[in-house]
Amino acid sequence: MAKIKNLMSVICFMAALVFWGTLHVQAAVIEPTGDKEGKQDLRNIWSALEEDGEVRLKSGETYYIVKPIVLHSNQTIIANGATIVCLQGAFRSDAPTKVNYGSIKNVTVDGGTWKHASKEGLRGSMVMFCHGQKITIKNLDVSCHYTGHAIELIAVKDVVVDNCKVKALGGGTTDWDCHEEQIQIDIAAPETAPKVAAAGQQFVKGQTCENITVKNCTVTGSRGICANFTKTNNGKFLNKFHKNIVIKNNRIEGYTAEALSLFNVIGAVVEGNQIVTRRSAMDAYSVGLHIAMFGKAPAAMKKAVVQVKNNVVKGGRQGLLVYSHASTKFGKVVAQKNKFYAKNGKEEACHADTGSASEVILSGNSKHTW
What's the whole-model pTM score? Predict the structure, then answer.
């Protein structure tokens, strides 16, 4: 009898799990309303997020949102196959309330074509997270105007951007002096992040990003991907450094600036990418992969490694440039099994020497002109 009761208890428990799991999924599926003003779809998405913590948008359907979806901790949007027409931005974290990456955590957005109502795209940031951690953005098709950022990450850590398609818009033109990146890994400073500064000066004290991975993406823009620094505030934040940036298995293209720039970074992996900068002028913006230091690095830099492996890198003045503008050097720079190209001549295709790094290991690379 005891065994029967135990068996019945297990069956009831499993049935309850199935019931509540099914109920949860059904409750989180949002039907499009057809409201092109974007108010009703946005309201329904917000309500589902508040109630269930998860929103599922239907594949093949189109939704309209009048302003960005504001996400909070432990929330998920699943939008594979759906199209979301954004009258402003796509989605973002709320105004920060805590420093030390504590404002938002455990957020996932999976799938969807997120496009601005204008064919030229948003002149701002379509996606933005700040002062948070454990954020996953994957399987998105998201673009903005070439003067803005499709994905902007400010003072965040443990972030993965995976299998996203990002392409700059703007009527087929790009201003020669535009250097804005489609994926920006940014420092929190008053002038670089004015909307963050509006929440309080404690949120713009030079906080940086850590453990950021961009993989399996296609990115094109004035500049493709950049881990950023700033000279503003009289150089107050030049000694602030990002940590552990991984750029892997992407196709990255820059029209008027570098395809990939890693500035003030302690430890990086750049592996398996196609990196192409198309700027014709032989200046710093024409470098294919630009790794540079602008401030005095902390002691952690001495043991940090920059690994560049199995990439195809094409630039103007240089393919690869590793350079320190400061009194400190990079720790170890390892470049292996890459194909480096420079329009400036094959001897300029790879520029990484001990003038800017304590140890440089170059092996199995080839240098070309194009």
Answer: 0.92
